[in-house]
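Why do we care about 3D structure at all? Because function follows from shape, and shape follows, mostly, from sequence. That is the central idea of this module. The next example makes it concrete: a single protein chain, its amino acid sequence, and then its structure expressed as tokens.
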Amino acid sequence: MNLDNAKEKILQAALDLLDSEGDAGEITTRQIAKKANVNLALINYYYQSKENLMVMAAGYRMGGIIEQVLLESNTDEDPVVKLKKLLTTTADFSFKHHEIFKIAITGELKEGCRTSCAMVIPLLKELFGNKSEAELRIIALQLMLPFHFIVIYPDKYGDYLDVDFFDEQQRTRTIIQMTENLLSRTEGKKS
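And the structure:
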């Protein structure tokens, strides 16, 4: 067996199980190895742990969701609508796989919010074409950091805002309101 092929098979098996099982915490390395038709030891060889593999699989799936939302968006669609759709869709996926995303977002914060900020900057450029790259990055951080902390601490953040973030309607309403508040404050500070 080609070892590079085994690595891809393991990732694909994790993605398939993530889609079908829903709860990454319930998926075992034995299930992954069986589905990938590989030796169990190869999971640790390539990914060091099930946790690392599931974070990678969740990140890969999230990237696909982001790409799909952006592709489905009409090019004439208002950038604010696209941004809200992107944020609510990714939040829905994050809460569907909450435990694994808590881990993934903790890693994202250690990286300085690089990936998630990069996903919103193109939309922010559409909205604020007159802003510098540094200003867009600051806006992206102001937008994304609260969402990261909502995923990591949904109960504490929920108590603070009186919102149950595990309830899709309450979560969506709050994300839209937070986004509108930030955008209206930012629009008021045009360069």
